[in-house]
Amino acid sequence: xxxxGGLAILALAVLSLAATxxxxxxxxxxxxxxxxxxxxxxxxxxxxxLKCLLCHAEAVKSVDSADSxxxxxxxxxxxxxxxxxAANATPPKKVYPKSTCDTCHVDFVxxxxxxxxxxxxxxxxxxxxxxxxxxxxxxCGDCHRDMDKQTGPSKNGWGERIPTMATCIDCHNGAxxxxxxxxxxxxEDDGRIITEFADTEGxxxxxxxxxxxxxxxxxxxxxxxxxxxxxxxxxxxxxTSFCLDCHAGATKPQAIHPGNYVLLHSRDALTSSxxxxxxxxxxxxxxxxxxxxxxxxxxxxxxxxxxxxQIHPQGWASFDGGGENHHAQSARNSxxxxxxxxxxxxxxxxxxxxxxxxxxxxxxFSGKALQNRNDAAxxxxxxxx
Amino acid sequence: MYRSxxxxxxxxxxxxxxxxxxxxxxxxxxxxxNSRVGFETYVRGIGDQTQRGPGFRDASRVYYAYLDLVYGRxxxxxxxxxxxxxxxxxDLVAFDGARLRYRGPLFVGLEVFGGTTVSGFGAxxxxxxxxxxxxxxxxxxxxxxxxxxxxxxxxxxxxxxRRIDRDGAVDREDLVADxxxxxxxxxxxxxxxxxxxxxxxxxxTLGTSVFAGYGTFAELEGFxxxxxxxxxxxxxxxxIEPYDEIRxxxxxxxxxxxxxxxxxxxxxxxxxxxxxxxxxxxxxWRASPRxxxxxxxxxxxxxxxxxxxxxxxxxxxxxxGGRLQLILGGTWAMAENTLLxxxxxxYLSAMGGIAYVVPDRAELSILAEQFADAxxxxxxxxxxxxxxxxxxxxxxxxxxDPSQRRVSP
Lengths: 385, 409
Prior knowledge:
Chain A is mostly helical. Helix content of chain A is 35%, strand content 0%.
């Protein structure tokens, strides 16, 4: 099989893997998993025409996301609903709807278990006021969608119908409602989102659902530049120094390059030096090491080391034409790499009307547009301008 | 932060300790319901006795020091004054000046900036520009504006203009644009940079990605790049060919990042009909909060030779809360480079490190690396660093203060 055939099969295999969909769940960092050992079907209750506020009356007053808005037992046992007293009388009376303890409390046996397993609702890491939403006329179903489809107990902690950020940003888009992250996310006084919580493992980070910014992407470090163009968005969590740690850091982060990358970097430098320059300011890193190790024309000539450290193939700078071993081709294809070692002056030794007049311009070249705006480059080689 | 380390050297006599560096960062701010004021600065000083290049001396400076004033929630007005960095156009440029950002009610935001250029961390300053190959672009001016879409569901778009002047004349002038649009599970995105000085495109990206479930993406992307330098560089008028690449990437992260994997395939096209192919495959596994593994392989062939390699590492966290951290890793690679002939051969490296971390306070780490290859003499490399951080009030809550959660009735 040819290498390209192998690559094609591999591509198909990984695309098949990608097609495996997994259901979305709320972030366990924003909504730590609760314990709700209750049997409950919103579908059944809504089919009977019951309104949300009949059970969740406290919701319209809530200004804290940590408020428990689950109905208390008294609300469930109100007249016409679950007649717990009658169902648990001795002898028990037949009531409708079913009202024994285990109707709601999972596996609870009256007389055997001291009390039902408790409901535990860890406080969400969000700012959320049901009251403000209610005052604006927003009804429960606008956010808690498809509750009539929730038939059983919660399988994923908060349940499949808990609103996720996708629901919030339908309105919180900067037009209908504020879009600032700190509208909902907890923030420090400097305005940045709190991403680590003292009592929870893990760190809050984007997963790429709303933008192309999945920070968990193993390749994220090398592909963050596109989302980073929206600097204000990055600053929601990161300080400016976060950028500089890598882009202008005193040492390279170990996660960026493997241990011996210094010896392997030339190919990347030859083919995608714009990526290198994203971190290595102005070629400083190139020049420093290249001069130190003698891998530069200037240093090599000064040390008389060019013959032992000859890094280009024979015929590299010959005058007998082009070819793949001639520097002209590399200069055309990756000029950024050339300039990490070679200065303009080295090029001008041949490519100038004052020297050997070897024309470096492309066929049909006209530099008028540039010359009219800034002729500094032209004057370096042409006396007649 | 104090650091001391050495670089690979030719012999024992050539081992030179790199300079100590010391950095100071200050973040202060106060926030109210509809406004915020803040000040941030970052200063780094480096004691360079090596005299081996301009880089370290240039790296010793005030990196940023700005005052932030933000007013409004729905349509915030954000003014930043002082030394700051900007990423408009993909480059990271620092300047002394002001930036005003306003997110307007008509789905359009505006950002205007201008000031005196301090430095550039991006492609605006490749060495070779000018006579001495210096790194600084200080002294000129930077200015521009950017319009961006806001409040349009599933859509992001920006259009910007940036101009950098040096020595009294225009040095860079670019139009930059990018967009992203989601259609359910599909996403289309693109970006472009056009030099209005040279009247030619510089960089362009067009791609689409498929969101195939939580943390799983497939992405097909085309990339175009033509190097453009400052206006005074002669390289702008050289016969330069564009570089194009088609990339396919599939990545998945499951169980909230505990398992990750990616595959990358690339086909690159150079001038003169030259091409190269590359493939990368990698994965990571966080077996527990204290044990993680990562591994990756790559292979490339075509123009400029073949390269094959693999690397792997493991991280272990021990003691109370993982304060003691161990890292072990290694790499293997084989390269055949037709244009840099001395670079061909087999490369091996091993790495081992230990760090003691006091969360949010201090970190002491020592990392040792050993290379084995035919190209260098294989001197070991040792990196030691000590970071110390202190704060007043910054880490006081970590989200445990209920008042941070409550919203004013």
